[in-house]
Amino acid sequence: MATIDAQSDLRERIGRFRVLIVGRANAGKTTILQKVCNTTEDPEIYDTKGKKVRATIYAMHASIADQLWRGNHDIANEMVFKSNLGFVFHDSCGFEAGSEEEFDNMKKFISDRANAKELEERIHAIWYCIPMDDHSRTFQRSEEKFFSECDTGHVPVVAIFTKFEALRPVAFGEIKKQLTGLAKEERLGRIAQRVEEVFTNTGVWDRLCDPKNRARPKCYVRLENMNKPSTNCDTLLERTTFALDDEELRLCLVSTQQSNMELCIKCAVETLVDRADRQLLSLLTDYGTYQFDIAKWFPHLKVRQRMIQYDDTVVMVLTDGKYRTANNVDILNVSFIIVVL
Questions:
Q1: Mean pLDDT computed over 154-181
Q2: β-sheet bridge partners, residue 314
Q3: Binning pLDDT at 50, 70 and 90, where does residue 177 land?
Q4: How many CB atoms are located within 10 Å of the residue 63 CB?
Q5: Between the CA atoms of 95, 100, 101 and 104, what dihedral angle is there, to the nearest 10 degrees?
Q6: Residue 17: which region, alpha, beta or left (left: phi > 0; alpha: psi -120 to 50)?
Q7: What does the alpha-carbon distance between residue 12 and residue 89 come to, in Å, rounded to a whole number?
Q8: pLDDT, tens digit, for every residue of 203-238?
Q9: HSE value, Cβ hemisphere, 13 Å, CA-based, for 291
Q10: pLDDT digit string (tens) for 268-325?
């Protein structure tokens, strides 16, 4: 059985995927990080020397705990969730309240970590959270300062519009009279359309992307109803992955998502499309290399056998390496089969 060892080598070079999360108190940052790491527990906090700072009472959404936290906060501290050690997070909280010192510290942190010599010490992505529960004040002084003054360099910024469900009652209130007598499906369609108009009218995306800004987001995601157990941050992880220009960083991020098969498949498909666009697919004769280029996006799977070519069809079987028993016969669990025509 052939095993892809690239991920272990990648871990040695990069370590963990490092994210700076930025946003006001009550923007839903804690919930986002918990969803990303598939946990409801608080993170463990470590200082730059690896000493645990605090294992509990990390609640960016709680005003009292937030005030206590601001007094001891250091943006260089690392937040780690036991449920997914592939991530390390940094929190900017402090400058959003108007502290110039905190803002200067954050600017220096971004500059230092964006240009760090060692890839494992760099921040790899910035998530900027903007709550939509007050749609008339989406772009405040904190957003203006960050995007107009911070030079994020090559580090991609992903704007996250949290609490997006708050726009729905606003939209409903504005067109309530127009919905009278309409069928349910049409009412829902009208409300959804009005939500888009309300969001556009805030002008927040245009202001974030102003050419005069030193930092501009590469993309955005909308998160809603994040307090419900059924919601997740898969879209955020996907947008972040494709916002990365470095393939090694993409691989590092994907390696944290063993249960997100959809993301793994999308990355593998893009590899195939990229090869086809560069007209390399028809020229490729080393199927071992081809196998590697696809299988590297599935760090938790193993290649059951090498590429099988039959006429114009290429087949590769990926498995999770586990056996199940049926009628006293051991059968290898096949996660899926990739067929390339």
A1: 96
A2: 309, 340
A3: very high
A4: 10
A5: 80
A6: beta
A7: 19
A8: 999 999 999 999 999 999 999 999 999 999 999 999
A9: 22
A10: 888 777 766 555 555 555 556 666 777 777 766 665 544 445 455 555 555 555 544 4
3-state secondary structure the chain: CECCCHHHHHHHHHCCEEEEEEECCCCCHHHHHHHHCCCCCCCEEECCCCCEEECCCCCCCCHHHHHHHHHHCCCCCEEEECCEEEEEEEECCCHHHCCHHHHHHHHHHHHHHHCCCCHHHCCCEEEEEEECCCHHHCCCHHHHHHHHHCCCCCCCEEEEEECHHHHHHHHHHHHHHHHCCCCHHHHHHHHHHHHHHHHHHHCHHHHHCCCCCCCCCCEEEECCCCCCCCCCCHHHHHHHHHHCCCHHHHHHHHCCCCCCHHHHHHHHHHHHHHHHHCCCHHHCCCHHHHHHHHHCCCCCCEEEEEEEEECCEEEEEEEEEEEEEECCEEEEEEEEEEEEC
Residue 270, both tokens: 């893009």
Q: Output b/e per residue, 319-331; b: 16+ Cβ within 10 A.
A: beeeeeeeeeeee
Nearest of 26, 228, 225, 220 to residue 137 by alpha carbon: 26
pTM above 0.70, yes or no: yes
- The predicted pLDDT at position 1 comes to 38
- Give the mean pLDDT of the chain: 80
Q: Phi/psi at 299 (nearest 5 deg)?
A: -65, -25
Letter for the amino acid at 69? W
Q: Which residues contact 95 (CB under 8 A, 6 or more apart)?
A: 102, 103, 105, 106, 142, 145, 146
Task: Using the structure block, give the residue that is written with the tokens 């937040």.
Answer: 79
Angle CA 259–260–262, to nearest 5: 140
In single-letter form, the type of residue at position 66 comes to D
- The C-alpha atoms of residue 109 and residue 158 are separated, in whole angstroms, by 18
CB 77 within 8 A of CB 47: yes
Residue 142 C-alpha from the chain's centroid: 22
